[in-house]
Amino acid sequence: MAALATVRDTLPVPAYIGAGAVRHAVWDALHGHAPEAPASDIDVVFFAPDDVGRVRDQAWQDTLTREAPHLAWDVTNQAGVHGWYAASFGRAVPATHSLADSIATWPETATAVAVRLAGDGTLDIVAPLGLDDLMAMVVRFNPARASREQYLARVAQKQYRCRWPMVQVILPNSTPPVDESTTE
């Protein structure tokens, strides 16, 4: 909640915390884990097609770091991802038209969720693929932007079941949940 308040009170546009930071908090709660240090990075996302360069992203990331230096901020204007994605991931992707449209392309359905703390203290949730997989602790491939190989590499690297043993990982083109250690 403190991170959400920092984003709300610091950035000049409605910005959301999404992806792993949300998944981490939800799955910790569902596993009964006491809150621990924040996720390795806190993905802050917004959608502003007026300026898709990375300069503003970095400036806002620096601002958040000054406000809360104990958190690892990663700020990204989702309207500009198509401009740099190929250089980072080797695959060109089309532009998206809204924040929800962008979030709907994130690599796993359970992490295609973002949350913002509104001025009145309520939570605004953007979950274009729904919340079912997040709440059921299912890791499922979303082919909208990531390749199968990228997904398998993420599953192997993240080792979800080490921290959250009730998580089910579904490999592309398979139906039964499997342990991600079998992907190596």
Our Rg estimate from Cα atoms comes to 16 Å
SS summary, helix count? 8
Element order: H for helix, E for strand? HEHEHEHHEEHEHHE
Largest sheet: 5 strands, mixed
Strand content: 5-15%
Number of domains: 1
Q: Give the total of beta strands.
A: 7
Helix content range: 25-40%
Task: Report what the structure shows.
By secondary structure, this protein is of the alpha/beta class. It has one domain (2-183). Helices cover 37% and strands 15% of the residues. The chain is globular, with a radius of gyration of 16 Å. 32% of the residues are buried. Mean pLDDT is 90; it is low at 175-184.
Q: Could you name the key traits of this structure?
A:
single chain; 184 residues; alpha/beta; 5-stranded mixed sheet; two-stranded parallel ribbon; 37% helix; 15% strand; globular
Short note summarizing the structure:
By secondary structure, this protein is of the alpha/beta class. 37% of the residues lie in helices and 15% in strands.
